[in-house]
């Protein structure tokens, strides 16, 4: 009998404990503690580090956990991280002090398009082949001296003609919303030109000598300035002489967000610029362009080269092939020194057969931009080629030095008496 009583007491005690254990398991599942099927990692649904849910309101039906010091610790960590990012940004801006003023993208590109799908940083090969958004297919590279990649607009030879004659002042050519053929003299150089308010425009051959000043009429000097055109602007076979004492000038500048600009078989010699006065470039679409295409471009400069980062306007896409930029050796110099400046994770850009020969004594890694020491998108130098593997929008890279066969646009092949080699 005593054994029977002991057995009944033991059974009754076990029956009272078991529901408490089961309730503890359920409560743990609802609170999302470690090991629960619903909670995932520690802190699920609470907004503390380790949560597998996104930070936000507690889902309906899930009890709010008791307050702890973890959110306060996270807030302190976040504030410290924000301060670190601010300090790093300030260091980035300070590192850019040798080049043009760098401002946040939101401040300098108000018209920039929304980011394209796939433009977030992704791994690429050191050759720069993109794994995200890549430039649209383009014609295969043309060998230097052969036919060019892109023809002028159909019917260009029948456009209304504007003949340039001025040698000591800038000439503005207004297309008045229509098409225009800009004719430079076949036997002598002229002063810089502005092509404005056109639909399509063509410049075929001729020579431009920049003026011995930095800012004629109070504006930065540009040998050719494309302004507010909306169709195709085709510039071919032009020789630009920038080696003029007292001058500071861009080679070709563009402020035409709706235009397609084609630059082919163009040579620029001895361009001069300074950080303090005129930030002269071989080519810069600073005001925006729908698309730019370059095939066979040679330039020498003592400041900057091909500057194709977005500035005050959006750039849709770009192609640079068979191009070489070198130091003119003209002194003194005032900062500058990056002979190509590209934009990481922006518009699609294809680089093919592009060369940079920097200033004497300056490393290749600091003759391109972003430089090899950039924090967010460094140039990777491998086998004499600079590429930007963290930039999903850039296909190809830039080679160090000059082409083995010489300039893509040799002296004497363009300018006065130019004859086009035709198009593929």
TrEMBL record:
<protein>
    <recommendedName>
        <fullName>Right-handed parallel beta-helix repeat-containing protein</fullName>
    </recommendedName>
</protein>
<feature type="compositionally biased region" description="Gly residues">
    <location>
        <begin position="37"/>
        <end position="48"/>
    </location>
</feature>
<dbReference type="InterPro" id="IPR011050">
    <property type="entry name" value="Pectin_lyase_fold/virulence"/>
</dbReference>
<feature type="compositionally biased region" description="Low complexity">
    <location>
        <begin position="128"/>
        <end position="146"/>
    </location>
</feature>
<feature type="region of interest" description="Disordered">
    <location>
        <begin position="31"/>
        <end position="146"/>
    </location>
</feature>
């Amino acid at each position: 009998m005593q054994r029977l009583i002991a057995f009944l007491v033991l059974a009754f005690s076990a029956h009272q404990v078991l529901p408490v254990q089961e309730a503890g398991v359920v409560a743990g599942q609802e609170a999302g503690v470690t090991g629960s099927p619903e909670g995932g990692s520690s802190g699920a649904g609470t907004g503390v580090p380790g949560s597998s849910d996104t930070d936000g309101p507690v889902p309906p039906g899930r009890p709010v956990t008791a307050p702890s010091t973890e959110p306060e610790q996270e807030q302190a960590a976040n504030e410290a991280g924000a301060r670190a990012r601010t300090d790093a940004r300030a260091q980035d801006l300070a590192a850019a002090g040798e080049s043009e003023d760098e401002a946040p993208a939101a401040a300098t590109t108000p018209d920039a398009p929304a980011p394209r799908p796939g433009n977030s940083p992704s791994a690429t090969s050191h050759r720069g082949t993109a794994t995200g958004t890549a430039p649209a297919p383009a014609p295969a590279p043309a060998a230097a001296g052969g036919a060019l990649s892109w023809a002028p607009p159909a019917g260009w030879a029948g456009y209304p003609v504007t003949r340039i004659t001025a040698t000591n002042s800038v000439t503005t050519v207004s297309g008045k919303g229509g098409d225009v053929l800009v004719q430079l003299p076949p036997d002598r150089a002229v002063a810089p030109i502005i092509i404005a308010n056109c639909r399509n425009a063509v410049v075929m051959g001729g020579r431009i000598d920049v003026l011995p000043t930095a800012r004629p009429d109070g504006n930065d000097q540009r040998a050719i300035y494309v302004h507010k055109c909306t169709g195709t602007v085709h510039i071919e076979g032009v020789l630009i002489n920038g080696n003029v004492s007292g001058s500071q000038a861009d080679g070709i500048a563009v402020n035409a967000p709706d235009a397609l600009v084609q630059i082919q078989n163009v040579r620029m010699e001895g361009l001069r610029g300074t950080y303090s006065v005129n930030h002269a470039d071989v080519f810069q679409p600073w005001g925006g362009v729908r698309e730019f295409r370059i095939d066979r471009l040679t330039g020498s400069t003592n400041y900057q080269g091909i500057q194709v980062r977005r500035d005050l306007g959006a750039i849709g896409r770009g192609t640079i092939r068979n191009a070489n930029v070198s130091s003119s050796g003209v002194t003194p110099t005032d900062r500058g020194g990056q002979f190509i400046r590209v934009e990481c994770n922006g518009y699609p850009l294809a680089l093919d057969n592009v060369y940079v020969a920097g200033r004497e004594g300056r490393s290749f890694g600091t003759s391109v931009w972003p430089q090899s020491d950039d924090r967010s998108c460094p140039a990777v130098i491998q086998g004499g080629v600079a590429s930007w593997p963290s930039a999903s929008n850039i296909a190809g890279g830039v080679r160090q030095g000059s082409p083995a066969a010489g300039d893509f646009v040799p002296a004497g092949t363009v300018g006065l008496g130019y004859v086009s080699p035709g198009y593929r």
